[in-house]
Amino acid sequence: MGASFSSGTSAEAAAPSSGMYKLEIELKRGHNLAIRDRGGTSDPYVKFKLAGKEVFRSKTIHKNLNPVWDEKITLVVDSLSDPLYVKVFDYDFGLQDDFMGSAFLYLESLEQQRTIPVTLVLKDHQLPNEDLGCLELAVTLTPKNSPIEEQRDPAQGEVKTYRWKPYVNKTMLLRRSWKRSTKQQSMRLTEVHRKSQLWRGIVSITLIEGRNLTPMDPNGLSDPYAKFRLGPQKYKSKTMAKTLSPQWREQFDLHLYEETGGVLEITVWDKDTGRRDDFIGRCQLDLSTLAKEKTHHLELPLEESRGILNLLVTLTASAAVSIADLSLTPLEDPEERREILKRYSLRKSFFNLKDVGIVQVKVLRAEGLMAADVTGKSDPFCVLELNNDRLQTHTIYKNLNPEWNKVFTFNVKDVHSVLEVSVFDEDRDRSADFLGKVAIPLLNVRNGVQKAYVLKNKELTGSTKGVIFLEIEVIYNTIKAAIKTVVPAEQKYIEEEPKVSKQLLQQNFNRVKRCIMVLLSYGTYINTCFEWESSQRSIIAFILFVVVVWNFELYMLPLGLVLLLVWNYFFSSSREMSEASMETMFDWEDEEEDKEERDSEHKGFMDKLYAIQEVFISVQSALDEVASFGERLKNTFNWTVPFLSSLAIAALCLATFLLYLIPLRYLVLAWGVNKFTKKLRDPYRIDNNELLDFLSRVPSDVQMMQYYDLKMDPGQSPNKRRRTNPS
């Protein structure tokens, strides 16, 4: 059943199926494991499960199909009837891990008090014929028959002695010992899980430029971009078009999980649309050779081709990043809280500008989650993401109302960041199933208030089943947060590829349409003042216009915006309206999704194509208008139509002359008086915009192509042309 042993077992030496046993496992290595990454490798790690519970998770070996772990674990088991379930996964940062195979180790067949080499052949029941490689282990099974057991309590750090007295019921004693052992295993596992997630430092990288890169395109140039990899973390730079000396000027941070720093791998690629990108070159940087808390200016030559990358690299220690139980909440310790408040006080505003603050998240529990398993239960765990920082809870098995009771602390580098909390169902042989998600902007957090958040779908456009209870507290320095607001925001290293969606296209089109309609409504309102539809309104507007223009100074422009913001703060109901509009949008999304489902049941492919055609026609018409406006402006200055360009010169010369002789306020005042009185002077006059009317006479590039005279072929006579083209 997927396990082969290098040494035989005898019936006499086989272990009985009940009693207390110590199981020692050494995870040695893997051979010829499955490929799960695009580069032809994988990032494998191993999980052990016993009686449905995860009891061990190995470290991740990156980019290796023959990994060497050399890790040891000791378990206490009370029954050999449950096999040890071994699973291998490929780690994907920011994505769901890929399944690489599994196997069972049957404990009843093991020989006791002897180390047995074991080879587990990995299988996938969905692909039974696929070769997924194997794992090498060394297993020792020992009965725990000693009358005195000494165990170390990890919570207290001291050795406790438990004596087995003759008058104590043996069954009860075994049950208590098993509870102690499973609790200690759980604590050890939680500690291992916690340490595997926490980073020990941050490496800040500024990709400045590349020089003299190898040309990969037929035009003698390239479209280069760079990929960075540090352990499980990946980053991709922007693509610079048609250059051999790209100026990227990008800054990003990666986490350091190893004390030594690790090796930063850099590859440079040439972007090719419609086919596979071309490899330009690679280089590596051993971070252990760099001094910490110092910025290093490095020029790294590419190994497999010509070219140099110019980088700035800084290694810094990580501040408050932690995972703890509720009893060890950092901000509830008065001394630590004072220290944190002091660190982010106004006096420290200009020290370490990148460290804006901290956020502490208590993940308490969830209720009424979706049942993802066939048993009507789920195995939920929670993932917290703040930009590119990612931590997760342990798994609560077979429970729709899990209680995690964990406290997570993140560094805040931008107070405008959004905390994303996702709930997943851990699956046995597949990627975790999505159960729900919430997104919480840090500036919307009410400190220290426990709140129930309704879980939403992946797109955060509608609700799903269940709620999650969180308590969040954010502490930050206001001045650092203000400075950070006017610098580029941190981009996510890994984002999902955009997909074509009729619903999303319709939604975005409606959003643009709403914005345009708001502007048009304002324009219509202003135009009614010129049209004298309401005499009282037009008179007030005219007097206000004359007073403002006559007394206008430049400082009044920002002052007017300040007054508008203050007015909206005290008197506007836009905040309440925005909440109502959000509810309306969610209702609209649900209606659209329901309509999409109903349509999909009754409509065929052509029907859907016709349905989306409407939106595309509107989009292409809007794009045509924008493009035509820009092309007409360009063609005016290109003398495409000399008469119109001459008119433009005459108009601009007249404007220059008037602006030179007459102050601007008088000209604006004259324009306003003319605009206000135009309807009074000629009630039946058709309103127009002279500038737009002028530009409408200038042909666009498409019209120029349509008006272009084709040259007649000299070898073809008019008579032949007439016969071949009678129309």
Structure description:
The protein is an alpha+beta fold. The chain folds into 4 domains: 21-143, C2 domain (Immunoglobulin-like, Sandwich); 199-312, Immunoglobulin-like (Sandwich); 334-486, Immunoglobulin-like (Sandwich); 545-573 and 614-707, no CATH class. It contains 13 helices and 28 strands. The strands form 7 sheets. The chain has a 5-stranded antiparallel beta sheet with strand order 1-8-9-2-5. The chain has a 5-stranded antiparallel beta sheet with strand order 20-24-21-28-27, with helices on one face. It has a 4-stranded antiparallel beta sheet with strand order 4-3-6-7. A hairpin with a 6-residue loop joins strand 27 and strand 28. Helix 5 runs antiparallel to helix 10 (664-681). The N and C termini lie far apart (81 Å). The model is unreliable at 1-18 and 146-189 (pLDDT under 50). It is found in: Membrane. This is Multiple C2 domains, transmembrane 1b. The chain crosses the membrane at residues 539-567, 641-662.
Q: CATH topology of the largest domain, anyone?
A: Immunoglobulin-like
Radius of gyration: 35 Å
Helices and strands: which structural class?
alpha+beta
* CATH level-four homologous superfamily name of the largest domain: C2 domain
Q: What's the number of structural domains?
A: 4
Membrane topology: Multi-pass membrane protein
Subcellular location: Membrane
Pfam families: C2
Protein name: Multiple C2 domains, transmembrane 1b
Quick structural overview:
By secondary structure, the protein is of the alpha+beta class. Helix content is 32%, strand content 31%. The radius of gyration is 35 Å and the shape is elongated.
